[in-house]
Request: fold
Amino acid sequence: TTSRGAARRERASAGRRRRARAMPTRRRTRATAEASTSDEEVKYHTWRGHRVGYRASGDEGRAIVLIHGFGVSSFQFRDNVRALGERHRVYALDLVGFGTSDQPDVPYAMEFWRDQVIDFVENVVGEPAVLVGNSIGSLAAVHVAAESPKTTAGIALINCAGGMNNKVKRLDGDFDGYGWQYKAVVPIFSVVLAIIDAVLKVEPIAKPLFESVRGEENVRGALANVYMNPSRVDDGLVNSICGAANREGAFKAFVNILTGPAGPRPEELMPRVACPMLILWGSKDTITPLDFPLGQYFLNLPKTRQTSRTDFIQFEGEGHCVQDDNPKLVNDALTDWVAAL
Reply:
């Protein structure tokens, strides 16, 4: 144990020597054939009566919890779990409503998933963990860090979302300095989302829409618009999404999540977040674009956040799901950053 601790301290020291506070842009390198977690055993635990699925790898080192984004599952960390597990205890959980976890007909909110992650860290992991999220998984990590500092050793945010769904809360000054067309679109978009909400609550209309959306062809097409590397949109990824979407509770969960509250923005939670933070962003992300208000907020956060270490890495040419699209980039960045904590 002593030698292992010494080795860890040496790696951390080396990591600090290699890095400046403002971290450099990483060049694009294509995904290699890393070990996949898709065939690993899914484990389960129970939270509030709901069965929660998760995958795990590694038996020593700092604990890392991976949290997926909207509509997907822990499968999307297929090439991160085992690679990171070579040095750490790694867990990738399925948020309730997605993947292998239960899909109950309950009100969904970011606070619901926040509480799920807190329980997971306390009762499954058993020690403070580094939370690594993508999209709404990142937002869940921010919620946890703000609400339960004792469970959070650090957070790594991959293309963080602004809300649970498309009804992202608008803040004063969001589009200050932008052209008039941006400001004009906001109220129109709000009306469109209100109409969609109303439609989704009418089951005879919403059910056929859901049947169409969860079809394999539509899922594959949607992923192709998000991923930069077409070879990563394979049968395994598509089946992981379609399989969950074809379960009995999927429709109700889908409607409840889309029509639920967007919740507070990351900017509103950040004053209560005290732990170290790593921000990873794909320069070609079209879901949370770097040049929009939320992206600009995170880009500037290393300069404005004084409470703890804050690092930002922009991945040139990468998109919204870079952890699966080009996993080695994220694995390397996380390994270096966690070693320096």
Summary: The chain has 13 helices and eight strands.
